Amino acid sequence: xxxxxRDNIYPGLRVEIVQxxxxxxxxxxxxxxxxxxxxSPNHPHGIKVRLETGEVGRVQVIKSV
Length: 65
Known about the structure:
The chain is mostly beta strands and about 60 residues long.
């Protein structure tokens, strides 16, 4: 699934995100989507989400559907 399309992301989905401070290294953080923060239907760098742990970042990998 495409991580750049908002309709592919929903609460409860397991994903890997890149947080702002990790963009240079590309370090990914795995978690479950709590909120979708991007309002546009798509975004070239990935949809911004808040995980259940409170971490915020852009979706890079969709782990489970």
